[in-house]
Design a protein that fits this description.
heterodimer, A: about 375 residues, alpha/beta, B: about 525 residues, alpha+beta, 7-stranded mixed beta sheet
Chain lengths: ~375, ~525
């Protein structure tokens, strides 16, 4: 038997079943979601001429395109992520622009600072691409706004009924209590959170219940700066790398990206307790296999009930499901009389492989070089 | 129940032994003895008899959570644990109750046993509506008999010692045998009079370090006693004041698991302690370890099992004789006394003095090492003739020299998601070798990769899946791994015609292409070379 031909590393999977019937305003191509009528891409994963970006996470904002369009709120963090030289245009939420005769507008997605749903209208047909989104309020970004449309392209990162988030004030209280207990025991608290978005949300969440000083990993600190410049209130933080050697870290909170877990960089904070703030922490095994002391189930994605409610609020007659638990969500919608299709994406955000959208770097191809490795920092 | 669930959460949240022990000690000191008794029971690994089939539990949960079966299955696969999946799917509890653990166990849980299905259903659903969060998870774990907290019974003993101020050895002894989780039994654990525990106490085991240097660096071969290294269960037999205690290295008291050993031990003089290896043994030769595993797996030992898998103690050492601690004497002296003690016929049937590898020089030892596998030994033990029986694992006086495993390069063809802490990551792999251009699966392996490699491989698997069969995926035949295994045997039950023992991953050979993997003929040659 001949060997199957090896798949090129990084080659996209063949696209999933296409929604049949009418003309598609957006279609999946090997570069990403493409609008032929307007000749632009939404969140392409390879360089293109014109990219409309939902938000600055690495699996949505890939570097190398000629022109980027994003929300005004999101322009600064996108620039930080993509690095110098990227041509970025920001438009206010709710403002229309015309791209080759196609009407495009951005609407708050509530995921991170500047995250947007992209509304595309052409010849009376309206599509909305959600990007990543959550409906729970977040002090660091504008709240999600449902947008009516014919076709809704939704993420499904946590598209199973086991995912139901507790109110965030409870989670922030747990984090504050963990920090306080560590401080009392003379330990540092190391909290892993995605450098863009989650880190700032957690920082805003502990504002007013600090048990000590807050230090950050370089990747987090840079984005804190962007957030503050954009008017988001965060507690005072300092870059951990600027602290003198031999410093006593007991009682402090250190916020670092998850990639720092298990690294040599962490050792200097000992004795310490580690925790991860992520929706994946809803599952006990997900925390245990990372050998973390604590897991705080705090997500910037919709949980199952909010996902279904958001889909219903769009009034969409067709739903395309991407990023995550596509098949179960599609099946659920079909069983409830809603036309639904799975859409392949470059990033397979299935459980734990690499949580799409919440991740800082996918298999080492960190978008825009936003990540400093912990080793570089020491 | 709330306090016990909090203890569970504390134990689950830390990997630090000392914090676990502290958390348990605090619980034992504060809890009502009736609750603490049950806590000891479950923490030390006790579990209720099978109360109801898991399937039934799943059906009730689907109805209660209003989730169709297929979605329940998807959820279960994502979580990897039935008790947890159910507790996550059920609606949140608005106002829970706080009944004591004793009441939950004795009045609610044990009452499920033998009740009608309808009664069971009503009771379980009532519990689900009363218990929130961690409590519901713990309850589900208890009724499915899968309650595990990552503490050994040894840690429970240490925590009880810390809480009561009684010595660990005494607590361990008091907990052995048929300990009933009653308030009186819990209070008795803390009793001051400690005379009861002394006679059972074993000595700490002395352990060997792996040999890393050349034999020649050890000096003259004549200074060393060389024995086969057996693959059984290391154990100490204690015979004092007319009573027998058989302890494993895990300090588990297993006297009643080996009635033939206990019976023969009655012939030993009082005040004798032997160190050896429990081995399945017939006609002067070891049986495969798998045979012993069959026996270990049994709840009760029938006459048939005892006849099929007879066990002996291969005795390495004599630690106490006539009530005198001999550990300070040289190995050679202890060995001579051991041979004398076990010279008589009836004792020799069950107590086999560990055979020596004889020879005057290192080349003889090296030859024995090469032939170790033919004797079903896993290598050699080297002990200085003048060595005392020490404590713990130390370099110098004793060395173990294990045979190298077999290895082969194989291609991954299937992957499956793991369970528990590996749920929803693909961690169980099937490997194949070439047979005239076709890949024939021959081994499954679960371990050997780092967490980072597992995650990377998982991402690769998701992108290179050919087909899904439930939780199993067939993947593109591209990834090559170097596997190690201990034994290899012809097996008509396997498609490849070959069965390997203890297969594990040595290395992910990213430098190799699938066509570089080994062939079935290479494996057959290993088998014939034995």
């Amino acid at each position: 038997m001949p060997h199957p031909p090896p798949l090129r590393p990084g080659a996209p999977r063949p696209p999933g079943p296409s929604p049949a019937g009418r003309d598609l305003l957006l279609e999946t191509t090997e570069r990403g979601l493409y609008c032929a009528a307007g000749d632009f891409y939404v969140d392409p994963w390879m360089p293109v001429d014109r990219a409309v970006i939902t938000h600055a996470h690495g699996d949505h904002a890939h570097h190398g395109s000629d022109r980027y369009l994003c929300s005004t709120d999101g322009a600064r963090v996108l620039a930080t992520r993509l690095g110098p030289g990227a041509s970025i245009e920001g438009i206010d939420y709710g403002t229309d622009v015309s791209i080759n005769g196609v009407r495009v507008s951005l609407h708050p997605a509530g995921h991170i600072l500047g995250s947007a749903q992209i509304r595309v209208e052409h010849r009376g047909e309206v599509w909305v691409v959600s990007g990543d989104y959550k409906t729970e309020p977040d002090r660091t970004c504008r709240p999600f706004e449902p947008v009516r449309c014919h076709t809704f392209v939704t993420e499904s990162t946590f598209g199973l009924p086991i995912y139901r988030w507790s109110p965030q004030r409870d989670v922030f209280a747990e984090i504050a209590a963990w920090w306080a207990a560590n401080a009392a025991a003379g330990r540092a608290s190391v909290l892993f959170a995605y450098a863009l978005g989650k880190a700032q949300r957690v920082l805003a969440g502990v504002l007013g219940s600090e048990s000590g000083p807050i230090f950050t990993h370089g990747a987090v600190e840079r984005l804190n700066r962007d957030y503050r410049r954009d008017g988001v209130a965060l507690p005072a933080t300092s870059y951990a790398g600027s602290e003198p050697r031999g410093r006593d870290w007991a009682g402090s909170l250190i916020v670092a990206p998850p990639s720092a877990a298990g690294s040599a960089w962490l050792r200097k904070f000992a004795p310490l307790s580690t925790a991860f703030a992520s929706g994946w922490m809803r599952i006990r095994g997900a925390r245990r296999r990372r050998s973390l002391d604590r897991g705080f189930a705090l997500s910037d994605h919709v949980d199952w009930p909010s996902l279904l409610a958001s889909i219903a609020a769009t009034g969409a007659e067709r739903v395309l499901v991407t990023h995550g638990y596509r098949e179960p969500v599609v099946r659920w919608l079909l069983e409830h009389g809603i036309e639904a299709h799975a859409v392949a994406s470059r990033w397979e955000g299935e459980p734990e492989g690499e949580p799409a959208g919440e991740t800082d770097a996918h298999e080492g191809t960190s978008a825009g070089g936003e990540m400093e490795t912990p080793e570089e920092e020491t | 129940m709330r306090r016990f669930a909090r203890l569970f959460a504390q134990l689950d949240e830390t990997t630090r032994t000392n914090e676990k022990v502290d958390a348990m000690a605090r619980y034992f000191a504060e809890a009502d003895p009736a609750d603490a008794a049950w806590a000891v029971h479950f923490l030390a690994g006790g579990r209720p008899k099978r109360l109801l089939p898991a399937r039934r539990l799943a059906e009730w949960a689907m109805a209660e959570a209003d989730v169709p079966e297929w979605l329940f299955e998807e959820s279960y696969h994502a979580v990897g644990d039935l008790a947890e999946a159910i507790s996550l799917l059920l609606p949140d509890v608005v106002e829970g109750s706080d009944r004591p653990l004793r009441e939950w166990i004795e009045d609610r849980l044990l009452a499920l046993s033998g009740a009608s299905e309808e009664t069971q259903r009503a009771a379980v659903i009532a519990a689900w509506r009363e218990l929130g969060g961690v409590e519901r998870f713990v309850w589900n774990k208890l009724i499915t008999g899968g309650f595990r907290v990552g503490v050994s019974s040894q840690l429970v003993v240490r925590a009880l010692a810390r809480a009561t101020g009684i010595e660990e050895g005494v607590i361990a002894h008091r907990l052995t045998g048929a300990w009933e989780p009653t308030p009186d039994a819990f209070r008795a654990l803390a009793a001051r009079d400690v005379a009861d525990a002394d006679i059972s106490r074993p000595y700490p085991f002395f352990l060997a370090h792996p040999l890393e240097a050349d034999l020649e660096t050890l000096g003259s071969a004549g200074e060393w006693q060389v024995e086969w290294k057996w693959d059984g269960i290391r154990a100490q037999l204690v015979r004092r004041r007319g009573q027998t205690f058989l302890w494993t290295r895990g300090e588990e008291l297993v006297t009643d698991r080996y009635p033939e050993i206990a019976e023969a031990a009655a012939l030993l003089p009082d005040g004798t302690v032997l160190d050896g290896e429990l081995m399945p043994w017939r006609d002067g030769k070891p049986l495969p370890f798998a045979q012993l595993q069959r026996r270990i797996g049994r709840k009760s030992l029938g006459a048939k099992m005892l006849a099929e898998v007879p066990v002996v103690l291969v005795v390495y050492d004599l630690l106490e004789l006539g009530g005198v601690d001999l550990r300070g004497e040289p190995m050679s002296g202890r060995r001579a006394r051991l041979e004398e003690l076990l010279a008589t016929g009836p004792l020799r049937a069950r107590f086999v003095v560990s055979p020596l590898v004889t020879g005057d020089d290192w080349s003889a030892v090296r030859n024995a090492y090469t032939g170790a596998r033919d004797r079903s030994a896993e290598g050699l033990m080297l002990k200085r003739r003048d060595s005392a029986y020490g404590v713990g694992r130390r370099r110098g006086p004793w060395w173990k020299w294990k045979v190298q495993p077999y290895t082969a390069d194989a291609v991954m063809v299937y992957a499956q998601a793991g369970h528990g802490r590996r749920a929803s990551l693909h961690t169980d792999y099937t490997f194949a070798v070439w047979d005239e251009g076709t890949l024939v699966p021959f081994a499954k392996a679960y371990s050997g990769l780092t967490d980072e490699e597992i995650r990377r491989l998982d991402a690769w698997i998701r992108r290179n899946t050919i087909e899904k069969f439930g939780p199993v995926r067939s993947v593109r035949a591209e990834q090559v791994f170097e596997l190690a295994f201990e034994g290899i045997q012809a097996s008509p039950r396997h498609k490849s015609g070959i069965a390997v023992r203890f297969p594990r991953i040595l290395r992910w050979r990213t430098d190799k292409k699938p066509e570089d993997a080994d062939t079935i003929d290479t494996l057959r040659a290993l088998m014939e070379a034995r």
